Amino acid sequence: MAKMLNGTQPVPYTPPGQDDVPEGQRVAYRLRVPSYYDRAAFRRACVARGAVFHPSARVFASARDGIAAILPDADDPDRTHAEEVLAAAEAVEGIGEPLDDEMAGEAARLEDILRQQWEPYARLLADRAHWLEIAPFEATRMFVDGWENIDLPFRRGLDGVPPDLLDALPREHIVLVGFEVMAMMRPTEQEAKNSESPSSSQSSTKTSTAAKTPPPNESSPTPTAPPSGDSPT
After folding, report:
1. Most CB atoms closer than 10 Å: which of 14, 163, 202, 221?
2. In this structure, are residues 30 and 216 in contact, taking their beta carbons and an 8 Å threshold?
């Protein structure tokens, strides 16, 4: 059954990894459902922090430019191989599937070469890495409305949860909570139809993949994407 997104009621979220903790003692967070204006405010907050997430199409295009610049001879077998590896990485990212081990190793080597020798590509990856650090923090700051079983008194100011309080939370919880919030910004089509919040019905109807995508791994051999797909919000 699709979950109901109600803009007037916080959504409970319990981070994973607490199976050995009695249910009533597990850490849980109360998350406010983002409205249309909240999503715009979130994007603004990320940009204000210098956090920009470049779409995969731009990253792959830069990689192709880098291959052509580093290996200008179109008949060079090394260039042909590099283009084949890049095409394979682009194809599996489009369907959300991993590369096989051999091709993943080739993709990792190609990324290292491009990162070192093609500055435009390195800048795009650096921007993505920065976004992956900032976006979960901003989402947690803006949309956490309370918590349970944390030995810290919860408080919010006009700008959300104060940074000093966020700094006291487990880093992994900020990442998990932040991406859970971002997944709520992209409800599935059925969730959008079932939502009681008028603003929720205006959100994207593209199916979120947050539930089947792990937290970002910055050492990924292919261009890294956020858990909820190529477009963060």
Report:
1. 221
2. no
Contact 197, 7 (CB under 8 A): yes
CA 110 to CA 118: how far, in whole Å?
A: 11
Full-model pTM: 0.72
What are the beta bridge partners of residue 148? 28
Residue 193's pLDDT band (cuts 50, 70, 90): low
pLDDT band at 25 (very low <50, low <70, confident <90, very high): very high
Return phi, psi of residue 31, to 5°. Answer: -110, 130
Domain spans in the chain, listed from the N-terminal domain onward: 11-51+125-212, 56-124
Q: How far apart are CA 146 and CA 70, in angstroms?
A: 52
Task: Report the distance separating Cα 183 and Cα 11, nearest Å.
Answer: 12
- Which pLDDT value is given to residue 186? 80
How far is Cα of residue 67 from the mean position of the Cα atoms in its chain? 27
Ranges 24-28, 105-109, 198-202: which has the least confidence: 198-202
